[in-house]
Hints:
With 311 residues, the protein is of the alpha/beta class. The protein has a domain at 2-160 and 187-216 and 278-294: NAD(P)-binding Rossmann-like Domain (Rossmann fold, 3-Layer(aba) Sandwich), CATH 3.40.50.720. It is built from eleven helices and 13 strands. Helix 4 (130-144) links the parallel strand 5 (100-106) and strand 6. The N and C termini lie far apart (45 Å). The model has no long low-confidence stretch (mean pLDDT 91).
Amino acid sequence: MILVTGASGHLGTNLVKRLVSQGEKVRALVNTHGIDILGVDVMKGDITDADDAKRALQGADIVYHLAAAVDGYGALPKNQVYKVNVAGTKNLIENFSGRRFIYMSTTSVYGYDMKENPATPSTPYNPSSYYGETKAEAEKLTLAHNGVVVRAPVIFGPGFNKSFESLLDSLSKGKIPIIGKGDNHIQWIHINDLMDALLLAKDLGIPGSAYLVAGKDVTTQAGLYGMLAKSIGSEPPKKHVSLPVIRMVAMADAIKSRLTGKPPKVRMEYVNRLVSDRQFDISKAENELGFHPKVAYTQWAKELASGYAPK
């Protein structure tokens, strides 16, 4: 039996569906709301509760640990982020006696100023956020107990496109500038490719190993804007603004958001996604897992544009 934590999230739901389609027996551990997928044993519980974790693990031969407190905007208390990401992982890994424990991690453990570029699975940790720090700690726990870590960058594709739809809207109105020179490298991953990587890790992941997975394409900030603008028949942005100016705007917007209770229009997390120069060496995953990403940015741009309606 396969246990999936965080099963009701976008990533977890995709994974559970893929596992069920392959005839696997799946138990979905959910905290806040359930999932309705035929043939899935849905269990309500909290990984931060050791008894819930032990109960969920009973009979599990494989665990996909996806549950996490994602705190991209500093809204969650640090103790909550730590409790879920580190203590929750500890509850699971220390009570697991099955065949393979797979931990879903993130390139946030490298930070936005990576110590190597392209990064490899052995590139030193250098997180830029507390979230990244806790994910790195959870990775260490997993690897120390011979688990398998799958580390991925920004995910795009169905279920993960909301922020990118806002980007399309800004592009259509000519309201988005290129930040800096726009030549920084962007290498994200489509949800379908990430699902392939996770499924491969189940059978081929080497205990105690970390795998870095990413998409087949590398583009630039300017290239991304041009491709997305073209997909909706708009002109790509030509105006450039400096990163310090955008950071000041984002800080001011964050303060205004706290005072008004309205969501900020310029989120620093989104800015960092677009301006960071980050490439990833996925050769270890290719060689050991047989991972070969298939979805190109151009295919995603068409998918995104097909469901886009100007606001």
